[in-house]
Design a protein that fits this description.
It is a single chain. It contains 19 helices and 18 strands. The strands form eight sheets. Strands 1-10-9-8 form a four-stranded antiparallel sheet. Strands 2-3 form a two-stranded antiparallel ribbon. Strand 4 and strand 5 form a beta hairpin. The chain is globular and about 75 Å long. Invertase that cleaves sucrose into glucose and fructose. Belongs to the glycosyl hydrolase 100 family.
Amino acid sequence: MRCKCQKAESFGGATANEWSPVSLPVNGVHGATNIFEKGRFALKCNEKTQSIEEEAWDLLRASVVCYCGNPIGTIAANDPNSTSILNYDQVFIRDFIPSGIAFLLKGEYDIVRNFILYTLQLQSWEKTMDCYSPGQGLMPASFKVRTVPLDSEDSATEEVLDADFGEAAIGRVAPVDSGLWWIILLRAYGKCSGDLSVQERVDVQTGMKMILRLCLADGFDMFPTLLVTDGSCMIDRRMGIHGHPLEIEALFYSALLCAREMLAPEDGSADLIRALNNRLVALSFHIREYYWIDLKKLNEIYRYTTEEYSYDAVNKFNIYPDQIPPWLVEFMPNKGGYLIGNLQPAHMDFRFFTLGNLWSIVSSLATLDQSHAILDLIEAKWAELVAEMPIKICYPALEGQEWRIITGSDPKNTAWSYHNGGSWPTLLWQLTVACIKMNRPEIAERAVQLVERRISRDKWPEYYDTKRARFIGKQAHLFQTWSISGYLVAKLFLANPSAAKIFVNEEDPELVSALISANPRRKRARKIFKQPFIV
């Protein structure tokens, strides 16, 4: 994507000159996107200490990337002292979500609108990995703005967008969550700004349908959940989440609900909406029935009979009771429960994955009782899941031989670090939305107070290490943008709880009635349902 540079007149009160990026070498390449902006948002060592929120806003604005003079996103990290930038100078789809919310809540809509439309154009790019192209509809993991000289003129330059669909990523994994987050952000933009013209555009409707068709495509799987490889979401390295990870399923469910609200009612969409409705019912039933675990369910699994060859089997996935790990027996409180991380034949991943559980609350994938139970568990196990910095990305960490086998001895994902039990401040905003939805904001307020004690002093790291999150992550980038924006969004939502509705999906009465008819113990038989849903 190419464009001759022209500066925008203004954005969020900043002049075009203030938003003009400074061209600094990145990994030795000149013309790469800015590391720090000049003007009133530049950091100055001799300035007086600001409040945490003021500092966070300055840092967030300093991370903004412009394309042809228009703001289109925020880079992943903005640490001027880092010698290992890697791809942290790029705009990541998932990383921009909290940044976009922060700007939306401040009434600065242009950057989010630009982000939505430019990433949509990138969707149509040809994507190839070793002569193979993935399905249409895949959204990039990230993109980067580069300034390159024009061949025709010596002094003239133009800006180009370079997108990464996973073909340059570590492990070469396609980002399944990018398209799901894009749909969720599109709905939030319309609800917050009141501008529905973006989601009604023909190209936006087409892009949304391409994502949905890619996700709803038929395959060999017997389950309504999305089947993905390891590392296809926020946990983008090998961590044993291949299969049907909860994070992807929760985002998938939320994206389906958001898309159903926005799809234009036309003849060409009828089949897609029908398939979407059928999948929503089947997915919600599957997750609520088979992923849920509490003390009662754990005891039931403990007494499972195995090798049941029957249509009416209780232990449908042939889970062996010996799979119950010793830590879980001690970890599970008397009051509370959660959705497990993954479910496959003869395998349950009993780890607690924070994002998947929180977004199951936000999207109403979890029932009302299950949602409260998840928050009950977080409160009961505060010392394990939160400790000194919110909040563990997963619990517990893989250690010893298990770590060597599952991660491939990944030196970045050692026990209680990074994706393997590290603590990620950016998850604060998802925790806040979930708590507000369940009318329990005091949990989020307690977490925010912990963050404010040290995150500014620690220079806004990407993640924290150790069981109690006492150390800054050993390879954590400082001035991590989504750590900054995650804190700001949490503060904004707590100050105005009604604003959290832009992400909340309320439970659909039609889905509830369809779920009531779905009895997991019913015998296999041919039956014609009058409802327009198929389970």
